[in-house]
């Protein structure tokens, strides 16, 4: 029998999706499920984006340029300028989601056995992208007690070796909901410059900054042109996860030229979805105002309800739409599965993401879950009540 690669065997399963068979069985058994496990927003995609596809009059659905359509990249650059990010269209490569932008970034800057430092808990697929690129993730732990703020910069410095090529942050954070301050970004900027490293910032949740805080991008930081790589996506901003459009942005010309070779190898990002994404850039500010208001309401209700449960600890998110919740259980994998298999309140249960998969340090985060507040307020209240009732009877 032909054998599977070692790399293939090492590829981690998605911690978010691994409970799906149990959820499917629960539904077959007649239960309804509140899905708090996955960041698929229930917010409507802007009409302008969907209309652009309906209006398109295409005879041949051709490849686009490997770096993405020039008109689209011009419009993205204008969008960034509005956010005080001064980049040109040729600093941008359009990708098949932020996921592909991350893969191109990893492929362009790291060789097998190189190291990347990432504050954990982090977006679980960073593990997958690292394994696919043969790169080692070196975690630096951030704590629920500090709301998952940036760990002390000395903690990063201690981990830097001759193999270290980059620091990767997610801002605002999935799964933490933490929004890094300008001062925290500047500390990171100083350390990457000192050690000649890349700073990759996954900014796919940029618009989702709450409580009057503004997002500070690594691309706004002066003197970081050679080091900064920004990852972006339309998935969450416009609730267009299925469009599969993102981009990689950098002022470092060699990086862009290298990433372009990866882009050429896969020929083109999706043509039709670029039409929708280009139109999405005309989405009025009122759309975002409404969406942000909705998420803030959801967050407040969720945190408020969770804090009422004895033994539960939760970090209050300042951005994105996730939070990490510490539960009075030993193993949240078992708890999440048990919720689906053995528990319901009036025929309803919840699906949560066990947080262990968001850490790469073994054994950390086992009593935590990640909640995505992508459901309506009434559903969130019901879902938290189910967790509360479940904790009353659950035994590890
Ligand atoms: C932090 C973060 N980065 C990147 C992605 C990838 O998004 P996409 O490939 O849909 O653009 C996601 C998706 O959930 C995410 O949460």
TrEMBL record:
Keywords: Aminotransferase, Pyridoxal phosphate, Transferase
Domain Aminotransferase class I/classII large residue range list: 36-345
One matching Pfam family: Aminotran_1_2
PROSITE patterns assigned to the protein according to its UniProt record, in alphabetical order: AA_TRANSFER_CLASS_1
Domain of life where this protein originates: Bacteria
Name of this chain's protein: Aminotransferase
SUPFAM superfamilies assigned to the protein according to its UniProt record, in alphabetical order: PLP-dependent transferases (SSF53383)
Coiled-coil blocks: none
EC number of the protein: 2.6.1.-
Requisite cofactors: pyridoxal 5'-phosphate
Protein family membership: Belongs to the class-I pyridoxal-phosphate-dependent aminotransferase family.
Enzyme kind, highest EC tier: transferase
Alphabetized GO MF terms: transaminase activity
